[in-house]
Amino acid sequence: NIFIENGLASNPLTPYRHSVYRPMLYVDINDVCVAFESFVKKILNNEIKKGNNSLDHIVNVLHSEPVTILELAEIVRNAIIKISDGKLKPEIRIVDKGIPALFRESEKTLIKVDVGKASKLLGLNKLVSPKESIERIICSKLSEV
Is residue 50 helix, strand or coil? Predict the structure, then answer.
C-alpha cells in the first residue's frame, strides 16, 4: 500500500536494499472472501464433515508464486504507468541503510506452496495474481480522485 500511495502521489517507490529480495506470498482479499464464503456454504450444506485432525480443513488461499519486494515495486510502478496512460511514472529508488542484505534473489525459488486444496475443496480454480490485484487497487484509487 505504501508503494501504491507513493507512486500515485508521484513520489518514488523506496524499497530498502537489505530486503529487496525478501520473498513474500501474496494474498488477495477477494480470494479470502470467496474462500470463506465457499467454506461456510459447504458447512451449512453438510458437505464438510468434522474431522479428528484440526489440520483437515486448512487451505492455502494465496497466489502460488512468491514475489520479492523489488518485484512488487516493479509491479506497482508498471501498473501506475499503464493505468495513468503514462501520466504518472514513479521511479524505484532503492534505499541503502548500510544493513547487510538479508535475502538472496534465489531464495524466492525455495518457497513452494500447494494451493490444490483451494481448488478441490473450495472451487477456487484461479487465484488472483499480485499484478491483477494491484491493477484493480490502482484503478479504484484513481477513480476516487
Answer: coil
In angstroms, rounded to a whole number, what is the distance separating the alpha carbons of residues 57 and 2?
33
C-alpha cell read off for 53: 485432525
Q: Is the pLDDT of residue 145 over 80?
A: no
26 backbone dihedrals φ, ψ, rounded to 5°: -100, 130
55-85 b/e (C-beta count within 10 Å ≥ 16 → b)? eeeebebbbbebbbbbbbbbbbbebbeebbe
Q: Calculate ∠ Cα 106-90-64, nearest 5°.
A: 35
Beta bridge partner(s), residue 92 = 13
Q: What is the pLDDT of residue 127?
A: 92
Question: For residue 75, what is the DSSP state?
Answer: H
Q: How many Cα neighbours within 13 Å face the side chain of 120? A: 9
Among candidate residues 65, 67, 60, 61, the one with its CA nearest the CA of residue 22: 67
- Which residue is listed with cell 525459488? 109
**Nearest Cα to Cα of residue 89 among 81, 100, 79:** 81
